[in-house]
Write the structure tokens for this entry.
Amino acid sequence: MKIIEIPKDLAINGADPAFDQPLHVGRPNIGSREDFLKYAGEIFDRRWLSNNGPMVQEFEQRVANYHNVKHCIAMCNGTVALEIAIRALGLEGEVIIPSYTFIATAHALHWQAITPVFADIDPVTHTLDPEAVCRMITLRTTGIIGVHLWGRGSPVEALQEIADEHGLKLMFDAAHAFGCSHKGTMIGNFGVCEVLSFHATKFFNTFEGGAVLTNNDELAETMRLMRNFGFSGMDNVIHPGTNGKMIEVAAAMGLVNLDAIDNVIEANYRNYQIYQKELSNLPGISLLTFDESEHNNYQYVVMEVAGDCVVTRDQIIEALHAENILARKYFWPGCHNMKPYSELYPHAGLMLENTRQVAGRVVVLPTGTTQNKGMIRVVVQVIRVLCGLHSGAKKAIDL
Ligand SMILES: *Cc1c(COP(=O)(O)O)cnc(C)c1O
């Protein structure tokens, strides 16, 4: 049921009537079309469409520079980049990951007959709880994959200590963390390597794409072989491999979007500030904050609905969807509750109480360059009206 009438004159980029299209979470940010078409023309002229072309090489250089890291190995998507990194590190047996993550973190292990072991998260930061990680270590454990959820760094120091103490390899799923820093150091420099995703819905996209960032020369070389069937030169295969290559047209999109990155951060930050301000005085509702002394991409506006709020998380989602505002639950109900894993580990949930609670209270709100201030205010208004209706104290809430 719709609860408010949305003004018809709200516009996206001054063009489309705002709510003709639903307000999605993860609407792609797209840089200059003219530049992209120019690059596409160059690709056609060269007839070099894939296989480590000049656009991919330039793209890798720029992404590595941006993160102040030695190597960027670009791939066809983040999942394959995870799979290749996991294999290049020689992980086997059991690997500890959070359950509160996108399913690809778990699949990249399971796909290679490695057991993902789900450790609980910190209920405040939503990233791996180092103590919970310690509890899950067994004789079969070979590694830990931390996830920099929402672009906020995992507890990398504590995880590195645990990894060193137990002889485990530590890597990170940094799919959310393009352009982010942790304690002043850019993401890409932690663990043995870190994996980015450039999927269309991510902060930074190449249509589909991903990369591994590392400062380890040998590992970088191995992963370059692995993404190209293990080919060394024209006719010689020296390593097992797969097809993980990024194509030229994806790299062209990446170059264009690198040029636009400051605009995207600016738009995301503006939206985050409006949400922050306008939702600040609703009891039981809070927004996840970012440490503004770090580099952040502000790609995820994460609202949490406490148990004592007058409305439930699901009521808020339902009300927003009725207005064509497609806010999302995220990573609900946790990887361990998805069929491939719930069948394998029916009791995993016993150790994942914080995961259950966080997955039950998160709503991710729309942001990005396609949302203007007016649209953000409408999203906020729906939430405020809903809280007002349910508290029976509508007048008390200043609309
Ligand atoms: C998006 C995402 C992935 C997968 O990346 P793709 O490029 O879509 O394959 C992996 N992990 C996390 C946390 C993600 O958000």
Q: What stands out?
A: Residues 77-79, 101-102, 104-105, 147, 173, 175-176, 197, 199, 210 surround pyridoxal-5'-phosphate (CB under 6 Å).
